[in-house]
Amino acid sequence: MSTVNRNPGGDPAPKVLEFERLLDSDEAASLLKIHPKTLQRMAREKRISGIQIGKLWRFRASALDEFLQGSWRANPPQR
């Protein structure tokens, strides 16, 4: 029985790209416990990373986490 090499160059199988789900303004603002318009303003002012698609804003959960981590370092809780 012979085998057929379906990958002639021996190259690894093509990688499948996976994208992080984008949150809309309401979802992202809910996670941060702020108003969606406040979040949109912060994105326009480049205080938080966001993607504007037309009139709509989208946010990566990882960007929100980075923002919170940065805020935590800048303003640690007082004891």
Give an account of the 3D structure.
- The protein has helices at 25-32, 36-44, 61-74; strands at residues 22-24, 51-53, 56-60.
- Strand 2 and strand 3 form a beta hairpin.
- The protein contains three helices and three strands; from the N terminus they run E-H-H-E-E-H.
- It is extended, with a radius of gyration of 21 Å.
- The protein has a domain at 22-70.
- 39% of the residues lie in helices and 14% in strands.
- Helix 1 (25-32) packs across helix 2.
- A three-stranded antiparallel β-sheet has the order 1-3-2.
Topology:
Layout: E1 22-24, H1 25-32, H2 36-44, E2 51-53, E3 56-60, H3 61-74
Antiparallel strand pairs: 1-3, 2-3
Helix pairs in contact: 1-2
Features:
single chain; 79 residues; alpha+beta; three-stranded antiparallel beta sheet
Strand order across the biggest sheet? 1-3-2
Shape: extended
Helix-strand sequence:
EHHEEH
How does the major sheet shape up? Answer: 3 strands, antiparallel
Number of strands: 3
Span between termini: 74 Å
How many helices in DSSP terms?
3
Average pLDDT, rounded to a whole number, is: 85
Helix content bin: 25-40%
Strand content range:
5-15%
Q: Which structural category fits the helices and strands?
A: alpha+beta
**Radius of gyration, whole Å:** 21 Å
